[in-house]
Amino acid sequence: MSASTEYDTNGVLVSRVTEFDNGVVQTEWFENGNLIRLLKEDLDDALNWEEIEARYDRNSELAGRVTFYDNGIIKEEQFEYGVRSATIQNDTENAADWDGIATFFGPTGELAERVTFYDNGIIKEEQFQHGTRLATTQYDAWNAASWESIDTAYGLNGELDERVTFYDNGIVKTEQFEDGIRTRLRQNDGNNAENWDLIEAFYNRYGDLNTRFTHYDNGIVKTEGFEEGTRTRLRQNDCDNAVDWDEIDTYFDQNGQLEMRFTRYDNGVVMTESFEDGVRASLSKEDGDNAAIWDEIHIFYDHTGEMAKRFTHFDNGIVKGELFEDGTSTSVHLYDLGNVKDWHSIITTVDENGNPAERVTTNDNGTVTTASYDNGVLSAVLHEDNADAFEWTIRGSVFEDGELLARQTTYDNGDELIILFQNQEQHARIEVDGDGSDPWNVRITEFSPDGNTTTEYDSFLDVPEPYQDYFGLTPTV
Fold first, then answer.
1. Per-domain residue ranges for the chain?
2. Angle value at C-alpha 395, between 394 and 396, nearest 5 degrees
3. In sequence order, which residues have a C-beta less than 8 Å from that of residue 198 and are 6 or more positions away?
4. pLDDT exceeds 60 at position 476
5. Of 334, 346, 387, 448, which residue is the least packed, with the fewest Cβ within 10 Å?
């Protein structure tokens, strides 16, 4: 460090130049021995400013100071009796996110007011008392944000007390705090910008959400309860009959995942849903007021939430059970517990495309009907008289591309009747004498537009070859 000093003819100090080791040069000017001006220059760019110029009053007390920073910011400071009274900062080269900051101080130098002009047009005004912030007002002059203004009030110790935000869409949000911790929030939708009118939220002493009420435009009121900020319960009430339910109660586990939900519909139906790890595990519906054609519906889901089983209890006593794999139906079981139909059960299996593959019907009279399908198209039907209710034991039909190909009946006495079809019309009739009561063994009647022809045969071996394929015909089901 080196210094050079200049004196007047009377030996009074006039100026002094000091060169510091880091390249900073400081020049001081004096009048009558009193410092009146000081200039610092950072010639080697050792610091974050280029130049600092200070002015002093007649008592050598600091009156003003201007700092030119490397990034283009200029800070002007004003002093009264050596105490800073105001500061003006300008961002000439857009180094910060603001254009200017004006700061004002009290008689003892404590912060009193600060106004910040941001690049996006937002203006923030801050007021202080004894250096502690009392209030803040922010204005969005250029519509840069989603709000028009924000008013914030602080307590005696500078902690947040209240904040009011006026949004562009007319919503007003009011937040209240105690010891800087939010205790209440209220939002009003004055211009009908959202689908709700009012939202009120209350917080515990730690600032965790405790209760929240949402009043929707259609009259639905939603009440949410929280523990340590995690939602544990939810109730929805349809006060103005806007939807088809009266009330929904939902419960959540300690991680905030769905656990149980109860829905009470307008028509009296009550739906109960259970969840595991947030995935629905079961659903039950009960029709207490006989609003539907069923009394109960019970559904069970797999671990991925896909339907696995569904049971429906109808008013007339019929019970339907359905099985699913990966959400796709695999079988349907119907049981007539109320004896309102002429069958006892119907069991239908379904292929991978959702088409029926087989349907087995057990009738009240003891017969069993089995229908087979190919890609959803009927291919065969077999009737079995297991209870000996009729004079036949088996009746079967075979279809091709959905059209009837042949129909067979096997009687109790061993006789058989086979009818062949072409284009849905009878083509031939084959009668087999199973008990030896007829003078022939096989009788075949062929139908044609020119007339019918009947031929009797004493032996199966005498029957023309095309017809031999139909002896002992039993549909494959």
1. 381-477
2. 120
3. 186, 187, 188, 189, 213, 214, 215
4. no
5. 448
Where b means 16+ CB within 10 Å and e means fewer, 183-219 reads bebbbbbeeeeeebbebebbbeeeeebbebebbbeee
Put residue 344 in one of left, alpha, beta given phi > 0 → left and psi -120 to 50 → alpha: alpha
Tokens of 464: 């023309």
The rounded percent of the chain whose pLDDT value lies above 90 is: 90
The pair of structure tokens assigned to 118 is 């941001």
Question: Is residue 469 predicted with pLDDT exceeding 80?
Answer: no
List the structure tokens of 414.
């061993």
Cα 187–chain centre separation? 23
- Return the pLDDT at 473: 47
